[in-house]
Amino acid sequence: MSTVLSPTSDQGTGGNGVVVASSGSSRRRPRRGRWHNSIGTVPFLVYLALFLGVPAISVIVTAFVNGSGHPTLSNFNEAVHGVYLQSFVASLKLSFGAAIISTVVGLLAALAVCSSSNRILRAIVTAGSGVFANTGGVPLAFSFVATVGNFGLITKLLSDAGFNPYNHGFSLYSVLGLTIVYQYFLIPLMILIMIPPIDALRKEWVDASSSLGATRTQFWRWVGIPLLLPPILAAFIVLFTDSFAAYATAEALTSGTIPLVPIQLGSLISGNVLAGQTNLGDALGAGMIFIVVVAGGLYIYVQRKASRWLR
Amino acid sequence: MVAVTPTVGAKGVKDKGSDVLKLGKPFRFGIIGLVAVFFLVPILASARYSFLGNNNTFTISAYTELFGTNEFWSTLFLSVKIGLGTVFLTLALLIPTVIWVNLRLPHLRRVFEAISLLPLVVPSVVITLGVITSYKHLPNLIIGTPVILALEYVVLALPYSYRTFDSAVQSLDLKTLVEAGQSLGSGWGKLLRFVLLPNLRSGLFGAAVLTFAYCIGEFAVASLLSFTTFPVFLVQVGQTAASQAVALSLIALLFTWIPLAVIVIIFAQRRNRAAAIDAVDPLEAGVQV
Amino acid sequence: MERSGLSVELVGLSRYYKDVAALSSLDLKAEAGELVVLLGPSGCGKTTALRALAGLERLDEGTVSIGGRDVTGLAPSKRNIGMVFQSYSLFPNMTARANVEFGLRVRKMSSAQRAERSSEMLELVGLKAQADRFPHQLSGGQQQRVALARALAIKPEVLLLDEPLSALDAKVRSLLREEIRRIQLELGITTFFVTHDQEEALALADRIAVMNGGRLEQFGSPLEVYSHPATEFVAEFVGSVNRVQGVVGETGKVLVDELGVVEYHTAGNSGYSRGDAVEVLVRPEAIGLAQDPTGGCSIVGQSFLGASVKVKVATTRGSILTCELSPLEASQLDFGGAVSLYMKGPALLLSRRTGISSASAVEAQSAMS
């Protein structure tokens, strides 16, 4: 699973324009009852309610009841202890680490691309990022097996040079390995998200600040960084949730042996349920929803802050 | 004969970035080079791995053996079927909804866009669990067949398909087109067929490709509901024959990259044409499955 | 309230992009407190000159001095110059007030002093009530006022305005234009104003520097530039002209088929002798129209411009001339009847007949802008 929430859209002019337009049109067209106007969206909303709403709510509700249908918090009690607590910790570690690395590398790459006057380079990086950001899942896992797996190309080259990473604590099939693999779709996503706000830094602002006597450092301190910080934070949240919810790559690489929340949940679904754990999976699922919702809330908060000064 | 003076004073977009950022060439090339290496090496490594026989010989046996198995073709066929079904359902749901929202409820456009992003809040593993617990009593025709996959993929791919199609609809002056069509006496059917859909071709295509790519690559829901789709088959292969799995992955990657690259380019062009419109690149989203 | 301005001198400014000259040896001197407009089509080098003056553009040759002090090698931040850009130059993450205070913050002024100064400046541009709005909450005209306040807050020695009104609509543009002039006179600050709009230039300037192809074509008061253009380019860029064929007659006179004997100023048109075939440039308002059944000319088009009426007249020679009449004059004409043409004033300029019409060159240039 993944996360989109494109930050640029919320900075676009579309929002304002739409509001203006709608106030005009509603004045022209007298209200003929809400029903009449929104009936065309009913199939869509019903579909979402059935195939998103019902499953999601059933997970949350089931998380609060026991096997015989009585309300209880014991599922959560179970979910925050032992191996499940470890899996939350490992998942958060993985997501944070992966998101931080990709935020930094992607930002640097976006800065490098934006500062280049080479249009071809730019076109290649943008198109390439669009494609790579959508790469994931099982094929990605196997191409990294071929790269830094036990018999991968890089592993072989390093071993030939006298440094076998597998003798020094590295493993592709670990949190560290996954952190590296996830960069393959996280970095391009970061580049895609950051190019528009970096491009939006206007030359006029630099010129104006230097004609007002400011140094470059002062420009970045008072103008450049304040403008870039909200999109960077928003992007970080997107990358975090993206890696938090990812299942396929980790499952394909580790065959369910690594303790991550989605993996644990997956193995509970596949039937590895111990006695007395009937609704434990729902508690894990509710926990995942909770973390993603918190991240989404932070995202909206950051965007709101930024939209104070962005059109 | 006309003397045309070159516009020298007006410096193009060309130096714009560098004027703001002033990053040195070594830095630029260094970082871009490193990133490029990171992205190319796994592809090269996969190619090498898939052609590697015993004792470092070159062999294409990984490929020939794969194409010879029935399961390769049957799972691929299943995934394509599910993909096409999902695309069909998605378009059937999106076309009327998005047009309706843009035409009749433009003030709710942002709300519907937000609704389309809701599936992101529920990781696909969790949705699968929800489907199992809440729909276990549904007729076997739905829950026991890959139909359920298509039904859920519509939802899971919605964040990508909805935005893509919505931004295409927005770039049209829908109201004017509809009013013009109606003033010329065409009904809704004709209007859709001859006016709206032809104008929305790239949006429809983009939404369809993204959805299809999602379905072809989706692993979590399919494997947890025990359907052997193509990615599930791929993992099974990986447990026994690594080089075949790598070969298969390489093929899968290339085959998703090509259509994706096509729509990235189409949308980049469209965005250049209508830069003023809030046309969001759909691929600012990563489709992780 | 402010010090009076300083003189600014540009000597031999040159700037090349590859082998194209964006500026070639431009000399210009603005007196203290003067408002100089740099006027020309896009690509004429006016913005390059302004940016060179601000220090934002590197120079290949030439020196810039302000108040007698050579500032050529100085960084923009050291020049104490206020600059207003075309648009979008306000920092979007700061309120109007914070924008105005930016230069003061750089100068490490105390916050009390900054608040006082920014209030003063915002009041000067009439935006005291909008001090706490962000740029996107302000109209285009208001944004440019804030930009002006920001530029003036640092008590600059020179004020530079780079097409500050071009992104605004017509009404706001003329309003703000007057206000800029009022403030400039009030502060007595030496000001350079870049525009491609001749009307704006004529309305604002103490002196206009008309530029073309990186060179200075003419530098003079609005009246001089309009009535005594130094070159054909100036004549055609500032105001509009009719071109007719003529032959030079006795001193100060030229014979034009359509208009008879036309006077011209010998001062600006030396070097012509009797019998020379020339093109004569005549302003539309210098041509009069009279009702004349035997005149042979007919009116083929008219457009009412409010304060004047533009009339197109087909002459006996087959050419079409444009005349500008007052509404009163126009109301006395029978537009269906024959008319004759006469001269109300002297010709603007003569030029030797050549194959190439420079009118098309001007069209080509304005089409590009």
General description of the model:
The complex is a heterotrimer of chains A (311), B (289) and C (369). Helix content of chain A is 74%, strand content 0%. Chain A contains 15 helices and no strands. Chain A starts with 6 loop residues before the first helix and ends with a helix. Chain B has 15 helices and no strands. With 369 residues, chain C is of the alpha+beta class. In chain C, strand 1 (8-17) and strand 2 (20-30) form a beta hairpin. In chain C, helix 2 (96-106) packs across helix 3 (111-124) and helix 3 packs across helix 4 (140-153). The radius of gyration of chain C is 24 Å and the shape is elongated. Mean pLDDT of chain C is 87; it is low at 355-369. Chains A and B meet through helix 2, helix 4, helix 6, helix 7 and helix 8 of A and helix 1, helix 2, helix 4, helix 5 and helix 6 of B.
Amino- and carboxy-terminal Cα gap of chain A: 31 Å
Helical proportion of chain C, percent range: 25-40%
Measured as a percent range, the helix fraction of chain A is over 70%
Encode the helix/strand succession of chain C as letters.
Answer: EEEHEEEHHHEHEHEEHHEEEEEEEEHEEH
Q: Which features characterize this protein?
A:
heterotrimer, A: 311 residues, mainly alpha, MetI-like fold, 74% helix, C: 369 residues, alpha+beta, OB fold (Dihydrolipoamide Acetyltransferase, E2P), 2 domains, 6-stranded mixed beta sheet, 5-stranded antiparallel beta sheet, elongated
